[in-house]
Amino acid sequence: MKRHLSPAHLFALVTSLFFVVLSHYYYWQIGDDSYIYFRYIDRALVGHWWSWSDHIPAVEGYSSPLWYFLLILFGKLGVSVELAARSLGLLFAAITVIGCGRLARALNVSYALSICACLLLLLNHGFHYWSSAGLETSLYMALMVW
């Protein structure tokens, strides 16, 4: 008996393939602003909250307190801050793609158009570039889509 892929399985397969290939291509780049986060998080992990150095007064020098505290949480668990930032970025990017497909389906769009919506998202250079850049971009994309 011949089995065919259902539209849902085809949708998942196509979007997953594009996501993995394009995310792998951009994975090794990192945003220079990420190191600002990493510096603040490294300092927070040793008890120097909101400070860049011992010689400068404490100030919020990053753009997202949510991302800051999330990375501190992973740092407290012993995960490298850079690895946590990249991994969480890719996780939230994947959640964004799933959300894009679910949103299209919730709007009663066909599977073909749902795939097109996700492919347009996935073919956006900035989506992959910023997903693993170490910044909060994909977290906010996921929150916005869901």
What are the main properties of this structure?
146 residues, mainly alpha, 67% helix
Reconstruct the topology from this structure:
Elements: H1 7-26, H2 34-45, H3 65-76, H4 81-106, H5 111-122, H6 125-131, H7 137-145
Helix pairs in contact: 1-5, 2-3, 4-5, 4-6, 4-7
Q: Could you characterize what this model shows?
A:
This protein has 146 residues and is mainly α. 67% of the residues lie in helices and 0% in strands. It has seven helices and no strands. Helix 4 runs antiparallel to helix 6 (125-131). The longest helix has 26 residues, at 81-106. The termini are far apart. The mean pLDDT is 86.
Quick overview of this protein structure:
By secondary structure, the protein is mainly alpha-helical. Helix content is 67%, strand content 0%.
- The count of DSSP E runs of length 2 or more, i.e. the number of strands, is 0
Class from secondary-structure proportions: mainly alpha
Query: Which runs of at least 5 residues are low in confidence (pLDDT < 50)?
Result: none
Mean pLDDT: 86
Radius of gyration: 18 Å
Q: Report the span from N to C terminus.
A: 39 Å
Biggest pleated-sheet summary: none
Q: Strand percentage, roughly?
A: under 5%
Shape: elongated
What is the helix fraction of residues, given as a range? 55-70%
Helical run tally: 7
Order of helices and strands: HHHHHHH
